[in-house]
Amino acid sequence: MNSAPTIYYDNNFLNKKEINYIKDNIFSGSLPLLYSESSTTNDFVPFFGHILIDRNTNKSKSKHTNFFKKLAKKITKQYDIKINKFLRANINFTFPFKQESIFHKDHTFDHYNLIIYLNNSDGYTEIKHKEQLIQVEPKLGKYVLFKTLSHRALAPSNGVRVICVMTFN
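The structure assignment produced for this chain is given below.
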């Protein structure tokens, strides 16, 4: 039996105050970023990232963590999804690159992925479910929420793609 994936999204969920917070803090030029050679194991797609919640310790590493946790709770409340534990969270800045990222799952166990788009870009997110390929266009104020599905980021053709990715169970 082919069941359709449960993918939740909203194209315009951020209010003016939240958009201003993102503009003033994430795009201020003062956000500490770390360079990584791969966005997932062995894909060699480089990006710059800001760790909100460390994937190894599940501990907050940023003064912006609570802002994004509140957004996650605002989103999941609409669908009666309870967040038991945040597993990781990162703000990723992806620039144009030639190689393709690989489809992956963020963990080897059941979990939710939440991607919040922090700017407009043409670097789509692709989500795989059996024979279906769902493409999500990044737009400021949009999110996509799904459970334990393979996904990947496509590079923007120019500029930068900025997202907050969070996983939780």
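Interim note for the steering committee: The radius of gyration is 15 Å. The helical segments are 16-26, 65-77.
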